[in-house]
Amino acid sequence: MRLILSLDLAKQSESAEFLTLDTQYMLQHLTNESDSLAQLLYRSFKDSLDDQGETLEEWQTEVTATMNNKYGEIITAFSFNLYHEELLIGTLITASFREVPLILYIAIHPDYQGQGLAKILLHCLIKQAQQVHSHQQLFLVVAANNVPAYKLYKKIGFTERGTNWDAIL
Q1: Which of 2, 80, 119, 125 is the most exposed place for a label (fewest CB within 10 A)?
Q2: 68 within a domain of the structure (yes/no)
Q3: pLDDT tens column, 107-125
Q4: Is residue 165 domain-resident?
């Protein structure tokens, strides 16, 4: 089962805990590096709680479709790539789904997980969304069995909204 969560941007303090990246990391707005993104998503989700058995080829197809607006237009101002030196190690991709920002993917390369990098990506998104003032909420979907991700989202301020988009939007 997948749960839909939302974050009310107005309730987030702009002076909330600000996390910074070590100088060895570089954050950039999303660019269409389809092959690198597919490899990152494949490695990040393989053998994880979110693994649905996708092959690298299936991830390549998914990334191409996502970048071609499969779920809605990508919001580049709300989407980021994270690099360690020149290696893509993380991504957060947000699209306009039913006219609301939906975080499609948050992924950190397995070698870099557990360092708070996903939390930093989320905080960068929240800060950017608050500065732009174009939306009141952010949405994401999480697998109900992915307790670590669910706890992270709740700690940041996301609340559970249900499982049915039609009942929510």
Answers
A1: 2
A2: yes
A3: 999 999 999 999 999 999 9
A4: no
